[in-house]
Amino acid sequence: MTSENKFNIGEMMGTSMQISKNLACGFSEMWKNYNSTLASINQQLMDMNNQHFTFWQSQQETFMNISTRFSNEFYNSMKQFKDSIKEVSEAGMDGTRMPVFLSYFELVKQVEDLSKKIEDLEPKPAAAKKPAALKEA
User: Fold this and answer.
1) DSSP three-state, residue 125
2) How far apart are CA 89 and CA 83, in angstroms?
3) Phi, psi at residue 60, to the nearest 5°?
4) Are 110 and 101 in contact (CB under 8 A)?
5) pLDDT 10s per residue in the chain (137 long)?
6) CA 102, CA 109: separation in Å to the nearest integer?
7) Longest distance between any two alpha carbons in the chain, whole Å
8) Coil, strand or helix: which one is 94?
9) CA geometry: angle at 7 spanning 6 and 10, to 5°?
10) Is residue 84 within 8 Å of residue 73, measured between CB atoms?
11) What ranges in 1-137 are assigned the alpha helix state H?
């Protein structure tokens, strides 16, 4: 074997030790900065949560304003509708007395009484006169 292909254990050990030292320094730096990194991440999360909360709070306020306005407009519309129906019905029923029925039997009695009154108002048909030719026979 040539010397170029031979493993140099001392050199490999030196390189391995240098890599371990660099790795240890990297871990050391990472752990030194760990608390500040966590604090930074925590602050970013808190800011995002506050923005999210503020957004949803404004959305809720907007929804409540729209819902309140809609219900008020619906109430006013129904009130106008009720008032217009009331005006039309009062104008159409002006001077009309609506009967109030307490029970079915009272209704039947009032219908019978009204039927008798109508019969009394109708002229009675005169007795049919028989033609003279039929009388003599």
Assistant:
1) coil
2) 10
3) -65, -45
4) yes
5) 455 567 788 888 888 889 988 888 888 887 888 888 889 999 999 999 999 999 999 999 999 999 999 999 999 999 999 988 888 877 766 666 666 656 778 888 888 998 888 888 777 666 556 656 555 54
6) 11
7) 170
8) coil
9) 135
10) no
11) 9-92, 104-121, 132-136
Residue with tokens 């519309």: 77
In eight-state DSSP terms, residue 95 is T
Q: How far apart are CA 77 and CA 85, in angstroms?
A: 12
- CB-CB contact of 80 with 86 (8 Å): no
Identity of residue 119: E
Local structure of 118: helix, strand or coil: helix
Q: Measure the CA–CA gap between 110 and 58, rounded to whole angstroms.
A: 65
